[in-house]
Amino acid sequence: MAELIDGKMISTLIKDECKEKVAEYKKQGISICLAVIQVGNDPASSVYVNNKKKACAYIGIDSLSYELPEETTQEELLALIEELNQKKEVNGILVQLPVPKHIDEKTIINAISPKKDVDGFHPQSVGSLCIGQPGFVSCTPAGIIELLKRTNVDISGKHCVVIGRSNIVGKPMALLMLRENATVTVTHSKTKNLKEITKQADILIVAIGKPKFVNSSYVKDGAVVIDVGIHRNEDNKLCGDVDFESVKTIASAITPVPGGVGPMTIAMLMKNCVDSVSLQQEN
Ligand code: GUN
Fold first, then answer.
1. Does the active-site annotation cover 115?
2. Which ligand 1 atom sits nearest the alpha carbon of residue 138?
3. pLDDT per residue over 161-219, tens digit each?
4. Would residue 40 be called left, alpha or beta, if left means φ above 0 and alpha means ψ between -120 and 50 degrees?
5. Cys-Cys with 206: which of 62, 145, 177, 241 at CB 3.0–4.6 Å?
6. Facing residues of 63 across strands?
């Protein structure tokens, strides 16, 4: 039976480490501030934004909250981002996605200063990750690396298969695993013989966006399985992209949903906010 990878516990550890760092900074007269912008009132986004603000409060990071109406124009949003880019007291800027349809997501992401891009979505952040330069890393894949390292999963030399190639998870995940010296295969919707490939994985990272898609027939005996998905099933219960009950019988370690990858995203956002101080000092 697979070992459970406890994301709730590990995310709490990381948040507590951040809290200590913030307290040290405070003693040196340095405070950290995250600006969180939400356009419109998508209920799921509101939940995420509130959780981010709560995490800031827990850790001792100041948060500035901008709740803008759905009708906000792209120009108005860009003007706010520029104002926050210029503000010395603001260390991190986060625009909750998705933005309303009349606003171009790419333009918004590109407008955030790479020095304040705590989501790690800016092309400069992604490029820095690609060539091994300092910069912010997208929170969910960064959190997965922490989960693996803190449960003593060896990455170097292992075959890692990633299912999914999104800009936020799949692509940065592949780059991070490569940085950790894994041999990496990225699969996606056009991949042929998916099962044959996933069955070769020592570490299988599933971000396919389909409930319970991966069952034990996709998994090699003893593989480590990381489930990035989060869905609500017919009974209103949460489940992932992995059929947990099936895969736990064959994997050596597995993340549950909830309580696996999910809590890591906010913990890593907090870590990025803390790290922003030293990144901003390097000029
Ligand atoms: N929407 C869903 N996930 C995220 C995230 O990690 N950051 C932002 N800004 N928006 C999101």
1. no
2. 6
3. 999 999 999 999 999 999 999 999 999 999 999 999 999 999 999 999 999 999 999 99
4. left
5. 241
6. 34
Question: CA geometry: angle at 150 spanning 28 and 161, to 5°?
Answer: 125
Q: What is the DSSP string of 4-44?
A: E--HHHHHHHHHHHHHHHHHHHHHTT---EEEEEEES--HH
DSSP state of 250: T
Q: Is 226 in the pocket of ligand 1 (CB under 6 A)?
A: no
Please name the residue that has the structure tokens 């956002």: 269
Instruction: Please give the distance, rounded to the nearest whole angstrom, from the Cα atom of residue 96 to the centre of ligand 1.
Output: 5
Whether residue 230 has its Cβ less than 6 Å from ligand 1: no
For 57-109, what is each residue's pLDDT tens digit? Answer: 999 999 999 999 999 999 999 999 999 999 999 999 999 999 999 999 999 99
86 is catalytic: no
Contact (Cβ atoms closer than 8 angstroms) between residue 136 and residue 144: no
Tell me, in angstroms, the distance from the centre of ligand 1 to residue 264's CA.
13
Q: Is ligand 1 within 6 A of the CB of residue 63? A: no
Residue 70 CA: distances (Å) to CA of 37, 103, 262: 12, 10, 27
- Nearest alpha carbon to residue 144 among 131, 132, 160: 160
> Exposed e or buried b for every residue in 244-261, given b needs 16+ CB within 10 A?
bebbbebbebbbbbebbb
Q: Could you say which of 15, 21, 115, 119 is catalytic?
A: 119
pTM greater than 0.85: yes
